[in-house]
């Protein structure tokens, strides 16, 4: 693609209500588009970041009624840009299961939803510093991977904790993804030690661009997220990186021909072999 693809990652500190969340992210999206970005990506939990279940249940709604989802769809159409809502916390729609979906939504330049992905791997961990998370208590995990066509190449979808499961990224790359999105709300302790290493590893393994917009800072529910939104090239090189956890715009230009070059140099995606499992 002549001149490359101008993208922007939006780093946010999403408030705990949808009206405040939209007021927080909309000016950043507008600024990114004014700066020339044609593809804009927001983090996990763009519409609400609230882990206290009673408060979150009070604000979570259906995808087609969510104020942030509707507002960002209108904004994409107004600005003529593609937009990935890194994730919106919305009702899953599964009868008999009151848990929400943690859902990525890919929006085209007409404001239409062209792909959905519900987070496959939910964050159930006990960190060494005493922090405890049980995402499975409030989020119903998805059951399908997702790769979508864009004007610039295929995009693989993932969310946050998914980054620790390399087989998903290999599948996305073998399904044709030249870019893989990793919108996140990484905890500060794990982000400090693991975030960049995991992002670079997934890019190297797949020969794809890894686009990782992140939440950052101290949130209303008491959690602290790492920030440091990052763009990694298909050779594993850092193309752009925020060095803080404050709301910001991270711009980058992607040379889509770099994907084919990286995969030709190290054609690991074609070298799978069957093997006997270890006993």
UniProtKB/TrEMBL annotation:
InterPro entries membership? C-N_Hydrolase, C-N_Hydrolase_sf, Nit1/2_C-N_Hydrolase, UPF0012_CS
Q: Does the keyword Transcription apply?
A: no
Location of the CN hydrolase domain:
5-256
Q: What are the protein's UniProt keywords?
A: Hydrolase
Q: Which one of the record's GO molecular function terms can you name?
A: hydrolase activity, acting on carbon-nitrogen (but not peptide) bonds, in linear amides
Identify its protein family.
Belongs to the carbon-nitrogen hydrolase superfamily. NIT1/NIT2 family.
What name does UniProt use for this protein? Answer: 2-oxoglutaramate amidase
Provenance organism: Brevundimonas mediterranea
From the broadest rank down, the organism's phylogenetic lineage runs: Bacteria, Pseudomonadati, Pseudomonadota, Alphaproteobacteria, Caulobacterales
């Amino acid at each position: 693609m002549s001149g490359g693809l101008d993208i922007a990652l939006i780093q946010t500190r999403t408030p705990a209500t949808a009206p405040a969340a939209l007021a927080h992210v909309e000016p950043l999206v507008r600024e990114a588009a004014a700066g020339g970005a044609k593809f804009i990506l927001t983090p996990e939990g763009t519409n609400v970041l609230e882990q206290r279940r009673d408060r979150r249940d009070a604000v979570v709604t259906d995808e087609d009624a969510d104020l942030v989802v509707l507002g960002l769809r209108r904004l994409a159409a107004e600005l003529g840009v593609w937009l990935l809502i890194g994730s919106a916390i919305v009702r899953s729609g599964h009868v008999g299961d009151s848990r929400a979906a943690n859902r990525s939504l890919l929006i085209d330049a007409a404001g239409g939803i062209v792909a959905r992905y519900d987070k496959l791997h939910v964050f159930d961990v006990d960190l060494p510093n005493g922090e405890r998370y049980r995402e499975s208590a409030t989020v119903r995990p998805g059951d399908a991977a997702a790769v979508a066509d864009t004007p610039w190449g295929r995009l693989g979808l993932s969310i946050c904790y998914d980054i620790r499961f390399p087989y998903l990224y290999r599948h996305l790359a073998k399904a044709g993804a030249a870019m893989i999105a990793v919108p996140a709300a990484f905890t500060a302790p794990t982000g400090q030690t693991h975030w960049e290493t995991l992002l670079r590893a997934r890019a190297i393994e797949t020969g794809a661009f890894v686009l990782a917009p992140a939440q950052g800072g101290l949130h209303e529910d008491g959690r602290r997220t790492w920030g440091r939104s990052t763009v990694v090239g298909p050779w594993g090189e850092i193309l752009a990186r925020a060095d803080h956890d404050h709301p910001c715009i991270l711009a980058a230009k992607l040379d889509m021909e770099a994907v084919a070059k990286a995969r030709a140099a190290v054609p690991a995606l074609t070298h799978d072999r069957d093997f006997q499992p270890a006993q």
